[in-house]
Amino acid sequence: MARWTHWAPWSALAVAALVAATVSWSHAVEQPLEQGETRDVDWLAVLVGPSMGTLEPCGCAGGMLGGIDRLATAISVYRSSRSAPSLTVGAGGQLSPEAIESGVLDWQRAQLEAQYMAYDELQLDALVVSSHELALPIEIFDGTRQSYLARTPLVASNLFDGEGAPLLAPLVHQAKTGVTVLGFPKAPAQLGEGREMLEPKDALARLGELGLDLGAPGRRIVLVEGDAERAKAVGELFAPGDLVAHFGERADASATAAPLGEGAPYGGFLGARLRHVVSLRASGDNRLWEKHPVAAELIADERLVPYRGYYREFLSAYDVVAQVGDTKGPHPRGAYAGSASCQACHTDAHAIWSEGQHPHGLLTLQEDLRGGAAALVDPDCVRCHSVGFGYETGFASKAVADPMRLDPKGPLGGIGCESCHGPAAQHVVTGLAEHVQRSNAATCMQCHDVDNDPNFDFERKWPLIVHDNP
Asked: Number of folded domains in the chain?
């Protein structure tokens, strides 16, 4: 296992940054090797972007990328397909934006616990922490990493305690490749008492003062939380041939992982939600950066399958769906009424809706038992399979009378009229068109987006549910 120990002066990095070196960078989509084919490389790295709370892809559409079990297979393939020493480095960002926005700590805890368990099973050589994890209460973050990351070093090169000592591994050096991994998370809004986060330049100076060996030029991998500009700024602190990749932007999960620019010795963007891995091949002064999809065709690694189930079990144990039920407060357009309230005036439209699959949205989650517990315990799934989830009068809200508030067959269970047309309690009373919203393709894309339904075609799907009366 990689260790961080035995250090040399800071001046070594300063000199290395001034070394004149010509490094050739290129990028391509990986083509599999022909049987018996080999390629000469000095070392190989496989990089994994933020999971954003996603251990498995949505089950509502086929052919989706991602999944922690298929990720394990992808890592194995791209680490072992060439006869060269290799390592795997992961980027932080284990919490979903929805979990962060909800403020429900038990949801965030469930994501962190399940993913740290899974990442430790993967035996990554290094995992760079992000601001999302560091924003958690110290007792949750420290307790989770100490319990579940027994074999995986957690890296933060710019995070120190009140005495100026590194709080996590400031870097990881892997002996067999000679590669050193550093990571620079952003500072969260609340860092917590007894913690200090420095700018990358100042952090490197601090590490130099501590006598740490910052690695050999051309054999450093630096992961930077933030955008391309921050990555480029950090890249100026390192030598040509070093890889500086950035992560953490909320971008299209299928976004390109191409390098930052032609000839730029910085690397590039690591995609999110475990949809891709990136490999870096180093051969002399040449660097080849390649993106590989974690595709449905990859055989699942059975060792990682249980961790998807553990996540659902955690969600169930913490009763996260019920906790999320009221986190958004009242909807700005008013209260929800339930689809039955629409039937008297919109008879034909209600009949078309009731004959489709939308009313049974929550029942499909009850039947989705991948990993054991039903998908009904996952707020990310319930959000699109119910009416008004998270709002004061929506599904699972305490303002809705028991036992209907959590009933998949209740008035707010399933994908109802108000899922597309908004809260309609006021419209039911007044009958005015201005008290309900018209839907369009963008309305559908709130749930049929690239993460949940990447092949969705509005023009093809709309005729199946068209109902023109307002």
From this structure: 2
Residue 80 clears pLDDT 90, i.e. is over it? no
**Domain residues for 417?**
325-464
Assign residue 116 the CATH number of its domain: 3.60.21.10
Core vs surface per residue 317-336: b (16+ CB within 10 A) or e: ebebbbbbbbbbeebebbbb
Same-domain pairing of 276 and 366 = no
On whether residue 94 sits in a domain, the answer given is yes
Residues 15 and 139 in one domain: yes
Residues 124 and 202 in one domain: yes
pLDDT at 208: 96
Q: What is the CATH number of the domain that holds 417?
A: 1.10.1130.10
Residue-level pLDDT at 408? 75
Q: How far apart are CA 378 and CA 394, in angstroms?
A: 16
In a domain, 168, yes or no: yes
Task: Label residue 24 by pLDDT band (50, 70, 90).
Answer: low
Angle (CA) 142-146-152 rounded to 5° is 115
Q: For residue range 52-62, what is the model confidence (pLDDT) as tens digits?
A: 999 988 878 77
Q: Among residues 108, 163, 162, which one has the least CA distance to residue 135?
A: 108
Is residue 449 over pLDDT 90? no
- Residue 12: pLDDT over 70: no
- How far apart are alpha carbons 307 and 120 in whole angstroms? 11
* CA separation for the pair 330, 189 (Å, rounded): 26
Residue 435, Cβ neighbours under 10 Å: how many? 17
Closest by CA to 115, choosing from 67, 159, 61, is 67
Mean pLDDT in residue range 169-183: 96
Does residue 312 form part of some domain? Answer: no
Q: What is the mean pLDDT of residues 444-455?
A: 84
DSSP one-letter string for 79-108: HHSSSS-EEEEEE---S-HHHHHHT-HHHH
| Cα angle, residue 248 at apex, residues 245 and 253 outer, rounded to 5° | 100
Could you tell me the pLDDT band of residue 470, with boundaries at 50, 70 and 90? very low
Do 148 and 269 fall into the same domain? yes
Which of 273, 252, 270 lies closest to 260 in space, CA to CA? 270
337 is a domain residue = yes
Residues 272 and 399 in one domain: no
